Amino acid sequence: MQPFCKKVNKVISNFDINIHSLEDKNYDYQFEGSNSFFEHFDQDIVEGGDFKVHLVLEKTATLLRLRFDIDADLRLICDRSLEKFTEKFLIKETHIYKFGETAQEMSDEMEVIPFGTPKINVAELISDYILLSVPMKNLHPKFRTEEDADEDGILVYIDPNAEKLETDTSTDPRWAALLNLKNLEE
What we know:
Radius of gyration: 28 Å
Number of helices: 5
Low-confidence stretches: 1-8
Helix content: 25-40%
Shape: flat
Largest sheet: 6 strands, mixed
Distance between the termini: 91 Å
Structural class: alpha+beta
Mean pLDDT: 83
């Protein structure tokens, strides 16, 4: 095995949770990550950063409910100036693993894992939650103004040379006849 592969596996294996011998109750876990964590995942959204995760795992006979509280300081690149800046993110998410016969993904929030699964790794879930919390438009704080917040991404173009449409206030004679019938019935 390559030395690089050992390093990568060690980084991700720190996010393993042994679930095989857990009793039916709540468990608390703490995880931390830094630049090496983000380097493992093939993404170009986050340049680096640090994060801390408080995970509450609720184990029952039929499922595992994981509640994530992530506090992250991420280094991003400004889309306007290409400067690096640090942004703070507070993320709360829940993921459910149900026990079943075969592994399958039911939705973004729920997966089925086989009975007897010895451990789960939450690194990919943490990465997904962090990356999904980063907005599509990254602006350095010095470029943020109230004008930018009010725009809401709506582009409006008004042609100053366009003529205003004239509204016809006269009634079509066919409609007038129908209105007369209606008025007679009343």
